[in-house]
Amino acid sequence: MKIQASGIHINVRDRGRGEPTLVLLHYWGGSSRTWAELIDQLEDRYRSIAIDQRGWGESDAPPQGYGISDLADDAQSVISAMEIKRYLVVGHSMGGKVAQLVASRRPVGLVGLVLVAPSPPSPTVLDNEQLQILQPLMLSLERSGRLSSTCKPHSSGFIERTHIRTLQHHGECHAHLAHVLGFIARAGE
């Protein structure tokens, strides 16, 4: 189903029943399908809302608005539009960064936060040599269509607009690299 959020349409997969609802946020390059096996395993115990973040899966891909705060606003808009009263936010990698921002806002109804190999809260600094290696690789993956089997086809230059510009922000080289370790933090119920 499509939900109007922040002026765009966000695709959402809504399955299962039970509380709290699991709000599932995928990694960079993923989609709501990332969570299919988990949803299948839990659908008898939990309602799961898997979101295609803007620019991925079947959600709209506007020309801008790919900051973590934009993605967090989208997630909160979906939660509000679906009138979800009690929920856990689950985020993987980039989705973990988005989940942390959502949780930091202490929204009504949030009862927990699950982070799966989350990206760090602040970008990892890369030197120019690392950036020179990363840029062509990301652009090559985009051109070859191998960036992700679940990613929505984007107009030419999607990587350049959304990530390389971030990498070069203010002359510093940043990349959102996922940590190997994750953790679970449970908020008060």
Secondary structure elements and pairings:
Layout: E1 2-5, E2 8-16, E3 21-25, H1 36-42, E4 47-51, H2 68-81, E5 87-92, H3 94-104, E6 110-116, E7 124-126, H4 128-144, H5 158-167, E8 173-175, E9 183-185
Parallel strand pairs: 3-4, 3-5, 5-6
Antiparallel strand pairs: 1-2, 2-4, 6-9, 7-8
Helix pairs in contact: 2-3, 4-5
Q: Could you explain the architecture of this structure?
A:
This protein is of the alpha/beta class and 189 residues long. The protein has two domains: 2-122 and 176-185, Rossmann fold, CATH 3.40.50; 124-175, no CATH class. The protein is 31% helix and 24% strand. It has five helices and nine strands, in the order βββαβαβαββααββ. The protein has helices at 36-42, 68-81, 94-104, 128-144, 158-167; strands at 2-5, 8-16, 21-25, 47-51, 87-92, 110-116, 124-126, 173-175, 183-185. The strands form two sheets. Strands 1-2-4-3-5-6-9 form a seven-stranded mixed beta sheet. β1 and β2 (8-16) form a beta hairpin. α2 (68-81) packs across α3 (94-104) and α4 packs antiparallel against α5 (158-167). The model is unreliable at 147-189 (pLDDT under 50).
CATH architecture of the largest domain: 3-Layer(aba) Sandwich
| N-to-C CA distance | 29 Å
The secondary-structure element order is EEEHEHEHEEHHEE
CATH fold annotation of the largest domain: Rossmann fold
CATH homologous superfamily designation of the largest domain: Alpha/Beta hydrolase fold, catalytic domain
Number of H/I helices: 5
Beta-strand content: 15-25%
Largest sheet: 7 strands, mixed
Please provide the count of β strands: 9
Instruction: Tell me, rounded to a whole number, the average pLDDT.
Output: 76
Q: Which consecutive residue ranges, at least 5 long each, have pLDDT under 50? A: 147-189
Rg, please? 16 Å
Q: Helix/strand/pairing class, anyone?
A: alpha/beta
CATH class of the largest domain: Alpha Beta
Name the shape in a single word: globular
Number of domains: 2
Helix proportion of residues, in percent?
A: 25-40%
Q: List the strand order in the largest sheet.
A: 1-2-4-3-5-6-9
